[in-house]
Amino acid sequence: FLPRLAAAAAGSNASGSSSSNEPAIPGANASAAELYQFGVKVHGLWGLLCREVSPDVAAHPERHSLLPLPNRTVVPGDRFREVYYWDSYWVIRGLIVSQMLTTAEGMLGNLMSMLERVGHVPNGARVYYINRSQPPLLSAMVRTVYESLPSGTNSSALIRRALPLLVSEHQYWTSPPKAVRLQGKDGTVHELSRYWAAWYQPRPESYREDAALALNVTGTSDPAQNPAAARLYHDLASGAESGWDYSSRWFGDNKTLATVRTTQIIPADLNAWLYQMESNIAWMANITGDAAVAERFTAAAAARKQAIQELLWDEAEGMWRDGILSPTVNSTNSSSTNPDQVYTLTQNPHVFASNFVPLWTGITEGSASQGAAVVQALKASGLIGPAGIATTLYPTGQQWDYPNGWPPLQHMLIEGSRLYGGPAGAELAQQLARTWVG
């Protein structure tokens, strides 16, 4: 690993200069030695982040909130004892870079084990997280591990195990009430998905905070006394399912948690990840020779791409937008779970880093002009700062708002720009990567 790291650091340093036509990005001047030392320190963190679930969890589940896992796992931060879903994608990417492929395979095995047992991948490996999931990146993890396996290994066994599980996860994300029918401009009815947790009470892990908010907003913390309290709890749990807990992105007034309305929003990034999932399932089905599944999911990906581009793409601004459902969805109103209900939507005009995430999923592949437009829009968005890409432009005090920047967003926007943004995207990606590290 260390010789490869040294070569990568030296190569990054050699190609790190900015174009004379572009302003210098602060923090983008780290030397090869500094980049190498940074990599060594990050590599040294794996031992602090490794966890193993006690056998007593499986033997006596009534005594524990942890879920049993078959393999050792890596948590996203040293304060955690449990694995989390979408964080695991970047953990696995890092493990592969560090040549810890066995650990990465174990992480993947843990997530597939929970999917087999629960019917979806929970938010995290706790019993109180089973009511919701997190951004569906399991197919991307499977593909990343598969493509990293050395030649000569039985890599097809991984695909054969994963494929039916991913089909079941897709069903979880594309069934009502997560799935919503939407009317396009020409009257065509499309189907896209939203976050929708199966929970209408204070979250056990944040009980005091949720109950206090409900009391302040609705006059009671008891959902049985006021349906508005149940709706608030539902939107809080659904916001947690997004991984963006919390952000002005989910707020009706773009400012305060009291106006959270997660279930009324069709997220651009979620649907792009589902497009990626559908594309990956079709790819895996082709590997296994399952022509029927390959054809089904190729068509599903094409239909979702069409819906995203028609309903969520903002041609004038060069970015995708979250959609806001209309009429307003009331999460305890029977119409909100009616699978035959057709909604219209309006685009959220605010700027979030998530507006650019679809680029990473390959949705612009075959359209160099759209990819280039997204890169230009990102550069003009106001999100790029001296330390990286801000999550939003709005300083609400929430952790998924300005001025905070999150590593998953840095990675997706950097890699998306590099892969699909043309020459300008490749240059921006180089600058942003060095800025984040620097």
In brief:
The chain has 438 residues and is of the alpha+beta class. It has 15 helices and eleven strands.
Jot down its keywords.
438 residues, alpha+beta, five-stranded mixed beta sheet, two-stranded antiparallel ribbon, 15 helices, 8% strand, globular
Overview of the molecule:
With 438 residues, the protein is an alpha+beta fold. Helix content is 47%, strand content 8%. It is built from 15 helices and eleven strands. A five-stranded mixed sheet has the order 4-3-9-8-5. Strand 10 and strand 11 form a beta hairpin. Helix 7 packs antiparallel against helix 8. It starts with a helix and ends with a helix. About 5% of the residues have low confidence.
Low-pLDDT residue spans: 16-27, 328-335
Q: How many helical stretches?
A: 15
Shape: globular
Q: Write down the overall mean pLDDT.
A: 92
Residue share in β-strands: 5-15%
Question: What layout of secondary structure does this protein have?
Answer:
Blueprint: H1 2-14, H2 32-43, H3 46-49, E1 50-51, H4 55-59, E2 73-74, H5 87-97, H6 101-118, H7 138-148, H8 155-173, E3 179-183, E4 189-193, H9 207-218, H10 227-241, E5 265-266, H11 268-288, H12 291-311, E6 313-314, E7 319-320, E8 323-326, E9 342-347, H13 368-380, E10 384-385, E11 388-389, H14 407-420, H15 422-437
Parallel strand pairs: 3-9
Antiparallel strand pairs: 1-2, 3-4, 5-8, 6-7, 8-9, 10-11
Helix pairs in contact: 1-2, 5-6, 5-7, 6-7, 7-8, 7-11, 8-11, 9-10, 11-12, 13-15, 14-15
